[in-house]
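Please describe our next protein:
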Amino acid sequence: MVDPFAEQAPPPGIQIRPLETVEEVFAASEVLAEVWGGDRGGMPPNLLRALAHSGNYAVGLYEGERLIGASVAFFAAPAERSMHSHITGVLPEYQRHGLGRVLKQHQRSWAFARDVGHITWTFDPLVARNAHFNMRVLGTRVTEYLVNQYGPMDDGVNRGDETDRVMVVWALAAPPAPTPADDQVVASVAVPHDIEALRRESPVDAAAWRLRVRDAFVGHLAEGLVVGGFDDERGYLFVRP
């Protein structure tokens, strides 16, 4: 059987390399700051250097010798055989070209080689394109809804909003979680198609979406439902476990 997530060669001219030198670490920190709208605290160079030097996942995405993206993950408790993917970003002009998937494939292969069975990460539940990628493309499963997980963040992406996050787990050896059939769906929680544009054009409406999605999501989980998948029109699909 062909593994749909086996690591593929990056596009021509693109390479993924470990961040090994101080210069590479500082460049990666700068790239991630640019992706997040100027936040230099998202992955400070000293922390990135420490994570890389102690054997965690820290790689750069290069076009030739230009660093255009980076990804950082760290190991969980040994018994969990898990790794948490903390941050992954690609410069805006290189986004929407499949490079995020290339990085995730590389991360998966790297984890497999170190006997890691699961990778977890968080994402903003209001960002529909991330929900689509994480749940429909990679087939991750939602495990938690985290209210204001990181507190206030002073960057161009999160400034002025509460940092609610969805935690997902990627079981690396399991087939992708399928979207549930219509007769299995008990409830759904819609999200805006483009929350980034809405935040720029109508911050009040964006804030209302945050509370609406939070209340519905937390309420369904409290009722014992679980997230079974994501649909681009209906949003998060809840099923009975």
Summary: The beta strands are 14-18, 57-63, 66-75, 82-90, 118-123, 141-146, 165-171, 187-189, 226-231, 235-239. Helices lie at 22-35, 45-53, 99-112, 128-137, 195-201, 203-222. The radius of gyration is 18 Å. DSSP finds six helices and ten strands in the chain.
